[in-house]
Amino acid sequence: MTRFRPGDRVYGLTGMRSGTYAQYMCVKETSAIAASPANLSDDEAAAIPYGGLLALYFLTRAGLRSGQRVLIYGASGAIGTAALQIAKIAGAHVTAVCGPTNLDLVKALGADEASDYTREDAPRGQFDLVLDAVGRRKTSAFKVACAAGGPLTPGGKYASVDDRYPRLTAALLAQLTAWAEAGKLTPVIDRRYVLAQIAAAHRYVEQRHKKGNVIITIPHDG
Ligand SMILES: NC(=O)c1ccc[n+]([C@@H]2O[C@H](COP(=O)([O-])OP(=O)(O)OC[C@H]3O[C@@H](n4cnc5c(N)ncnc54)[C@H](OP(=O)(O)O)[C@@H]3O)[C@@H](O)[C@H]2O)c1
Predict the structure, then answer these.
(1) Which has more pLDDT, 138 or 213?
(2) Domain that holds residue 92
(3) 61 touches ligand 1 (CB under 6 Å)
(4) CA 67 / ligand 1 centre spacing (Å)
(5) Is 219 part of a structural domain of the chain?
(6) 3-state class (DSSP) for residue 163
(7) Looking at residue 221, what is its pLDDT?
(8) Are 109 and 188 in contact, with CB atoms under 8 Å apart?
């Protein structure tokens, strides 16, 4: 053991193993865990790894770089709010697609353009990179068109968060930590629930309209 010492504040993602809300769990030292960002509370830090790691993994794999026109479909959710911020950090021009109540949120997070999926079938223009952060294989005219290359520039990339087996590594989390500590990546928290309200928290999340993240607070010992 070399990366951590007893008492260190750490955060991370256990992948699809999850943790059934246990207070303690064992993880490999080499997994996607890191020292928590020094400037964030535990609640705030907990809002970074899930959306941040998936967004960074899929955007990096799709070749995100400065100057690109990037569209984030589902920019108001956990993965979408992280993807939007990461694309802006990379220097992309970002169009964010979300529902009508979240247009102000995505603009506040840096979107250059925001489009309401209930009003427009598809935002106008062509994109070098489209990230579908809605997932669950739900089809819409826009998703079908993207998958067929429609709104993409020649050579443009379409990435979906539904792709299997993302490699969520400690190196990716280290990058997110650095951005959080530099104030470039902001945790987006919709609601907090105490553990006793876990069923209500699940009911809310399962509506699939959370703004960023929902946090479960677990009392510390003693
Ligand atoms: N590959 C993997 O290992 C992996 C792991 C975890 C999750 N996922 C996938 O990632 C997806 C997103 O996760 P998340 O936690 O970020 O979800 P989330 O926080 O619930 O966000 C859902 C997003 O979808 C938008 N949305 C909901 N209904 C829509 C519709 N009818 N048309 C267009 N957009 C719609 C929401 O917009 P508004 O709220 O503004 O309407 C919001 O931006 C999951 O559904 C899952 O498929 C994949």
Answers:
(1) 213
(2) 1-187
(3) no
(4) 26
(5) no
(6) coil
(7) 62
(8) yes
